[in-house]
Amino acid sequence: MNLNKALLDSGIWLAQAYLITIALSAATIWSLAKFTIWGRQFWNLTAVYFLPRRDWRPLGTLLLILFLTLCAVRLDVLLSEWSNTMYTSLQKQDSAGFWAAMVLFAILATVHVLRVLIEFYVQQAFTIRWRVWLNEDLLGRWLARQTYYRTQYLDNPIDNPDQRIQQDVATFVEMSLVLSMGVVNALVSTFAFTLILWTLSGPLSALGIELPRGMVFLVFAYVIIATVFAVKIGRPLIMLNFLNERFNADYRYALVRLREYSESIAFYAGEKVEGALLRNRFAHVISNAWAIVYRSIKFQGFNLSVSQAAVVFPFIIQAQRFFSNQISLGDLMQTAQAFGRLQDNLSFFRTAYDSFATYRATLDRLNGFTRAIAESRELPEPVIRAQGPRLAVEQLTIRTPAGGLLIDNLALDVLPDAPLLIQGPSGSGKTTLLRAIAGLWPYCDGTIIRPEENVLFLSQKPYLPLGSLRDALYYPQRLPGQVTALHADIHQQQKTSVDSAHGAPINLDALPVAHNGELETPVGGGGRAEEVLHLVQMGHLVGKLDQVTDWGRILSLGEQQRLAFGRLLLAAPVAAFLDEATSAMDEGLEDALYRLVREQLPHTRLVSVGHRSTLSRHHARQLILKGKGTGAWALANVS
What pTM did the predictor assign? Predict the structure, then answer.
């Protein structure tokens, strides 16, 4: 094996293979995207990422990965030729040739190691950046126009959207690269090693028929037949893997709900019911896991049998030619290696079928996610217009999802000096009216006029985000300096990861954990947050404003509602909607907080929903919904 000639031939081979592979890959991708369902799914999901006009780097990185993959194939070919040289020198007892082969191996091995390390870094960087982009794309679409909320109104809402964003995106990105480069490697290697086997293969005689280069045709027939059977055996794995993701996500979601509603469950002593639900969902997981095991045993057993039979096959075929001195030991060993590589490459689709099954299930789940987003945006929406600070509805009709009438042809204006109280029997549509004004309820007609920005909705059970009490108080506003805090927190996490590479800490749970960018010291707002806490009679928590914990569990419902009033004072919105926002307070505290809001926010248009008669004193007008499917309503001044 001449090193200089090998380098020249390798350069020519790589250039030709690279151009041909790019052309064929482009044609294949276009064909798959045009004529196959899963090809269109892939294209719709991520084609934008690879558009050069958006950013040339993803496509450039992919082309570099393709080049490194072809380098791997060429190195395998060179190592195959090296093995022939080495075994031939052993057969001839050529000491000089043997040690020259060892030097050549050192060179090839060094190149191989460098190629593997470079390829690893480039691939990991590519998948991380692709995952970041796809996560942001799906997350942005999921959050836009309240899609995360509106999808619940679809006829077939998707299950576990959180898992599809967090887990399926990572799986999709990693497997897309692994499988695509695996296909390229398998096909190019098949071509390269077919040429090697063609030159080493002799005629094969069977039943009086002599087949020139018989081993080449035999290995192709062997693998094609095995692949057909493998596909039939492995096809059920697609649905089983899909169900595996669903059942595990359902079980995890039930466990999360147990933690989220632990107090209510404990008061009800509902452990038996919750335990039965959890065990039932876990039983689905295990039942499906056993089905995967049984199917995988059949699939892997068949694959292993085929692969093991292929180990001795070339030796049996070539043994007669070797013993008759038609080929050397090097030729025999290279034949076996070439046959093995060719068999492995041709068997790629058979052995990787379970991976393709997992990938197809993941692609289906992500496609279902994007389809649900698209369908949610096709749901009807009320006409919402902005006319400065004005808050009004005109000819607004609201229905239930089943078509029942809740409110018929409502028209009213809300003025800053005339707060509105909405009352009526349960089920009459009080909260639904607020949802319609917020643009969340799709089953309505008419016109809604409201400020475009700075509108606040307070629900009966306030939402407290993860983080500090200051975060909860300012929500949904961002704290001054929070972006800087987030970057500092990420830097701390990266430093911890690097430090851990030099030795794992004893207690992994004690590592610093990111908290959405919250700092342990005040980051803004001056004394306004402290002042507001005193105003809503929660001054005892001033010292804990920047403590990061699960405040939704620590604070009682009444305290959470008071905190929401503090949020209202800090936000100073143009319009505010309070839905049973004082239901957990006593009447004296309710009176004090409503007076506080009117004193602090005299220009805010205020709309309240509530059952208490004591609310009337704080509102100038009252909207009574009649309910009972009539859609009737009455608007009156409060005396």
Answer: 0.73
For domain 393-478+528-637, give its CATH number from 3.40.50.300, 3.40.1390.20, 3.30.70.20, 3.40.50.10090: 3.40.50.300
* DSSP SS3 for 122: helix
**Of 338, 568, 554, which Cα lies nearest the Cα of 475?**
568
Give kind and range of the element (H or E) at residue 621.
strand 621-625
pLDDT at 475 (0 to 100): 86
Q: Would you identify the CATH topology of the domain 3-378?
A: ABC transporter transmembrane region fold (1.20.1560)
Per the rule left: phi > 0, alpha: psi between -120 and 50, beta: everything else, 624 is beta
Distance CA 185, CA 348 (A): 10
Smallest CA-to-CA distance from 631 within 442, 382, 380, 400 is with: 400
Give the C-alpha separation, 324 to 486, whole Å.
Answer: 75
Tell me the residue type at 585.
M
Edge-to-edge strand ranges of the sheet holding 405-414: 383-385, 444-449, 391-399, 405-414
Contact assessment for residue 352 and residue 297, using Cβ atoms and an 8 Å cutoff: no
pLDDT higher at 562 or 627: 562
Range(s) within the chain of domains with CATH label 1.20.1560.10 = 3-378
Q: CA nearest 307: which of 253, 354, 343, 361? A: 343
Cis status, amide bond into 512, omega within 30 of 0: no
- As annotated, the residues of the chain forming the CATH 3.40.50.300 domain(s) are 393-478+528-637
Q: Which pLDDT does position 450 carry in this prediction?
A: 92
Q: What is the pLDDT of residues 348-404, one digit of tens each?
A: 776 677 688 788 888 988 998 999 999 888 888 778 899 999 999 999 999 988 888
- Which letter, b or e, does each residue of 201-227 get, where b requires 16 or more Cβ atoms within 10 Å of its Cβ? bbebeeeeeeeebbbbebbeebbeebb
Is residue 51 classed as helix, strand or coil in its secondary structure? coil
Between CA 154 and CA 158, with CA 155 as vertex, the angle to 5 degrees is 65
Residue 446 above 50 pLDDT?
yes
